[in-house]
Amino acid sequence: xxxxxxxxxxxxxxxxxxxxxxxxxxxxxxxxxxxxxxxxxxxxxxxxxxxxxxxxxxxxxxxxxxxxxxxxxxxxxxxxxxxxxxxxxxxxxxxxxxxxxxxxxxxxxxxxxxxxxxxxxxxxxxxxxxxxxxxxxxxxxxxxxxxxxxxxxxxxxxxxxxxxxxxxxxxxxxxxxxxxxxxxxxxxxxxxxxxxxxxxxxxxxxxxxxxxxxxxxxxxxxxxxxxxxxxxxxxxxxxxxxxxxxxxxxxxxxxxxxxxxxxxxxxxxxxxxxxxxxxxxxxxxxxxxxxxxxxxxxxxxxxxxxxxxxxxxxxxxxxxxxxxxxxxxxxxxxxxxxxxxxxxxxxxxxxxxxxxxxxxxxxxxxxxxxxxxxxxxxxxxxxxxxxxxxxxxxxxxxxxxxxxxxxxxxxxxxxxxxxxxxxxxxxxxxxxxxxxxxxxxxxxxxxxxxxxxxxxxxxxxxxxxxxxxxxxxxxxxxxxxxxxxxxxxxxxxxxxxxxx
Length: 500
Known about the structure:
This protein is of the alpha+beta class. Among the domains are: 9-69, no CATH class; 291-337; 437-500, no CATH class. It is built from 13 helices and 24 strands. The protein has helices spanning 23-31, 39-69, 79-91, 103-110, 151-158, 224-231, 252-263, 270-280, 282-286, 303-316, 356-370, 442-445, 450-455; strands spanning 9-10, 37-38, 119-120, 143-148, 161-170, 182-189, 201-205, 208-212, 217-223, 236-248, 291-299, 320-326, 329-337, 341-343, 348-350, 381-385, 388-391, 407-420, 423-428, 433-437, 465-467, 470-473, 478-481, 487-489. Strand 14 (341-343) and strand 15 (348-350) form a beta hairpin. Helix 5 (151-158) crosses helix 7 and helix 6 (224-231) runs parallel beside helix 11 (356-370). The radius of gyration is 27 Å and the shape is globular. The two termini are 47 Å apart. The model is unreliable at 471-500 (pLDDT under 50).
């Protein structure tokens, strides 16, 4: 609603003040509101009804979780925390998951935790760029956009995970134990002919750390399962050191329970979404960093308070990453280790649900599954995301279906432009236009069309968008429009030679 006067008390507001309301709906409201209309009373009524609806939803949600898992949701602030409580109390096998908090072990294995692979391989589906702007002459290749059904839960439920306490080793452990399982630091050499390299690594660039999948030789940490998968593509490995684990199928029962729970509710309903989120959000808890960020505000308006601030600096000064002075206050940002304790009896750390080996094995398994679509001679791959791919031929029928891990056809595409990871424009066979630009809000995207993307396929072309950003005035405790600090987003300055 566009009426902003909270003190308005008069006849029912005119049609122009309402958003997303048809004239027929407005006339119905008007006929039912022939008395004085008070903005404040209506706003309070709306808030009360909103709170009542939320309360009823929470009651149903709590009943669902308690009846299935005997857990009170009020003790878990987020769904990932709730997912971990359910897993640990109901499904985690005894003596399997070791909390890896050793500085070297956690740091080393975290180097292999690189997330999903997002790449552009062919920037458009036009047969000839000479006909780029001629709809009458241009010929387009039909494309197929596939998504994987719950990729991470599929990997969790069907893949053995690293369990138990890691054992460090030096040298090539596979020379002693050919089936050794764990995380290895290797000299890695790719074949020089791959169109779509399947191993990614972090590299330092002038724009910061970037994750890339390239060719050549390098040293790095890798999950043994992903290493074995890469051998099938003729990658070569020289194992130098690492950490060996036992392995176990530890998530199968949890994933199956959540998947079956989801099937009990229609797609699009709240309970279906909750079951999906519980199924998907567990793995991320294992990959959390040991450090968190603490933001504190200190009043230095008098000598006693300034002394207290200096005492804090004596204790935590080395951990402070940033600070800003606002009037008589300092706002500091500092690192802090999460609280944990060590038990000599069990040789384990407690207080955190962190095991980077499990998180890395899950994401590596997802990349291995998606690698089946790369360098495939039966079709050309145009674009891929963590759990999706665009090809110019339908996938084999045995890969397609509604089960976990199978691919589902989301769109058949008539026209497409892929400029960069998560930056693309599509027109489906039913005429629907889909625009994706990561970081741009919907209000700006609605004015962008595929023709804008096609114009950017020419070398040195660019397009700028202006997007307002909001900042928090910390002292006053309110949001302010940064009217003089509009973010000029030069997102689409991509050169054709970088994409083909």
